[in-house]
Design a protein that fits this description.
2 copies of one chain form a homodimer. Chain A is an alpha+beta fold. Chain A has a single domain, classed as Winged helix-like DNA-binding domain superfamily/Winged helix DNA-binding domain (Arc Repressor Mutant, subunit A, Orthogonal Bundle), CATH 1.10.10. Chain A contains 4 helices and 3 strands; from the N terminus they run H-E-H-H-E-E-H. Chain A has a 3-stranded antiparallel β-sheet with strand order 1-3-2. In chain A, helix 2 packs across helix 3. The longest helix of chain A has 25 residues. Chain A is globular, with a radius of gyration of 15 Å. The first copy, chain A, starts with 9 loop residues before the first helix and ends with a helix. At the A-B interface, helix 1 and helix 4 of A face helix 1 and helix 4 of B. Chain A binds a DNA duplex (30 and 30 nucleotides) through helix 2, helix 3 and strand 3.
DNA sequence: CTTGATATGTAGCTCGCCTACATATAGGCT
DNA sequence: AGCCTATATGTAGGCGAGCTACATATCAAG
């Protein structure tokens, strides 16, 4: 699945990934690909701006690190981010209920 | 749930409702409220423009009718609309799989 | 004779996400 | 030495969905 199929769930997906442990952007993309069973393959142009939005919102905290010459910006989820994830998860479950009821699936 | 929780599934919800039979805008809003177990309450400013978009796209066909003095625009799903609904349903199921896998729910 | 339900629609706006591009280092292959 | 791929981060410009608020009209009930 490419990025236009996630329909507003991008932040929730990223926060859910970060709750398993801090990670940098490239690793988040790889983790989402892996945890989705190779179904999700998000472009960097989608994920990096999202991380900056989340950082501005106070949901993640970023810090620069160095790994074998390559600079990395490693993000960790904050308390506010955990709360946002909880809300995102609840919103998702509500949507799932409605879609299930209407589609009859 | 208000309209900002449906995240790109509006067209699919409307098409799914119309596949049970033709209906006018106001009835579609009521039907979605009913079939979702009173969870969905969409504002007219969301549904009516969506119906016009769907009509422009050829997914629904509208015709004016009269019922006890009130004019109604009754919409019926087209063949192209059925195909779009099938795709919308498939896209939704794919998203649901990914979300379930990543959220672990 | 006013209020609420029925019924449709527009104007203006915000924001999420996409596409395409730009940049840089490390490691392996030839 | 030179090239390609993987790793890694980011910007510019743009589109379109759906929201908020508003405007309009008829019918039924109190």
């Amino acid at each position: 699945m490419d990025a236009d199929g996630i329909h507003g769930q991008l932040d929730t997906l990223i926060l859910a990934t970060l709750q398993r442990g801090e990670a940098h952007g490239y690793a988040i993309i790889a983790a989402l690909k892996e945890s989705s069973g190779e179904q999700l393959d998000l472009p960097s142009g989608t994920v990096y701006p999202a991380l900056r939005r989340l950082e501005r919102a106070g949901f993640v905290a970023g810090k620069w690190t160095q790994a074998s010459g390559r600079r990395r910006r490693v993000y960790a989820i904050t308390e506010a981010g955990s709360a946002a994830l909880a809300k995102g998860r609840a919103d998702w479950l509500a949507l799932r209920e409605v879609m299930t009821a209407v589609l009859g699936t």
